[in-house]
Design goal:
With about 350 residues, this protein is an alpha/beta fold. It has 16 helices and 12 strands. Helix 10 packs parallel to helix 13 and helix 13 crosses helix 14.
């Protein structure tokens, strides 16, 4: 992707700030950064089996980013997390799950993440065409009054039967149910590794108290960074996290433990520095960070997706897991958006900050 293309989407001052920022708080030399042999270098000394390495290899050697160490993943579980109507009404073709798989294939993604039901219908047709990541737990939004809890929707064994290369799960760190979710997911990840599958954890924070004085700290760098660290601790091979939008959650809410250096030495208010703090908490980048693409904003989607990709890549992250911005628009536009994001990771002129 040429810088001339990016100038069509960003004000010049913002683009230059994103492309030329240097991270001084945490130099890139202190991190383990994505590359063609990243997972071999990181996991060969570990307890991950050859089968797990093969599964990771299937993901990172597929699609347009094959062999780069970066990943572009299409996630479609919003039909459970938000309701099928709200997710697919903007483009009803995705009520048919085959179109989800077609979008991931045509879009050149490394893998597709979706539900047991979606993948079960097409496992024999597509499991050999694109790596499957089965989302094994969900927050169903049909119970009334509304509750927020991730519960298992199937077994790790069934994900393996579907031909999955990996399982994905969510933990709502900070929620009253998080202790149970940590135990459930840790056990599921242990079984997944035993069967030869890789593991990806959605490390989200969730607690009403994380909104204080009108400011939302769910995406604070210190809270999301610690969520990533907990995800690495239960042996996630990759962590998924929202881009940080602020900092100082521990101090503002007055809980947990923190240190002044977290805020005045290890990061700044710059979005790349905030994201780098997330990378640091994934064992200094050994557990790759994939940031989420967020909800669809219509005309702003491409710009926001490109911005997220630049921040993630320059911070030392591993890629984007982008769904609604791609599937809540016409099919060809979704393909083009996915590939535009991938072009950021393919562009050698966009370097690690």
């Amino acid at each position: 992707m040429q810088q001339q293309t990016l100038t069509q989407h960003f004000p010049e001052n913002e683009l230059q700030d994103l492309l030329h920022h240097t991270c001084k708080a945490i130099p890139k030399e202190q991190l383990h950064l994505p590359g063609p042999t990243f997972f071999e270098n990181i996991f060969l000394p570990s307890n991950r089996s050859p089968q797990v390495l093969r599964s990771l290899g299937a993901i990172f050697r597929h699609g347009r980013l094959a062999g780069t160490g970066y990943a572009s993943i299409l996630p479609v579980d919003q039909d459970i997390e938000h309701s099928a109507g709200s997710a697919f009404a903007p483009n009803p073709i995705y009520f048919d799950p085959e179109n989800i798989l077609k979008l991931a294939v045509e879009g050149g993604c490394n893998a597709v993440t979706t539900t047991f039901g979606n993948l079960a219908l097409f496992s024999r047709t597509y499991a050999h065409k694109i790596p499957f990541i089965v989302k094994i737990n969900h927050n169903e939004l049909l119970s009334y009054p509304t509750k927020y809890d991730q519960v298992m929707f199937g077994s790790v064994r069934e994900a393996w039967n579907l031909g999955a290369a990996a399982v994905g799960a969510t933990i709502y760190f900070g929620s009253p149910e998080s202790s149970r979710q940590i135990v459930e997911v840790a056990q599921a990840f242990e079984e997944a590794h035993a069967l030869g599958m890789a593991t990806i954890l959605w490390c989200y924070t969730r607690n009403k108290a994380f909104v204080k004085d009108g400011k939302d700290y769910h995406t604070a760098a210190d809270l999301t960074g610690q969520a990533n660290h907990l995800g690495a601790t239960i042996q996630a091979d990759l962590v998924k996290q929202k881009l940080p939008e602020t900092n100082g959650g521990f101090t503002a809410i007055q809980f947990g433990k923190s240190h002044p250096a977290m805020y005045d030495q290890l990061t700044t208010t710059h979005p790349i520095d905030l994201c780098r703090y997330q990378v640091l908490n994934g064992y200094a980048g050994r557990i790759g960070l994939i940031n989420s693409g967020g909800e669809s904003q219509g005309e702003k989607d491409l710009t926001e997706a490109l911005r997220a990709a630049i921040i993630n890549k320059r911070a030392g992250g591993t890629g984007l897991i982008l769904g609604r911005k791609a599937f809540q628009r016409p099919f060809k536009e979704g393909v083009a958006l996915l590939q535009a994001v991938q072009d950021v990771y393919l562009d050698k002129e966009i370097t690690i900050a």
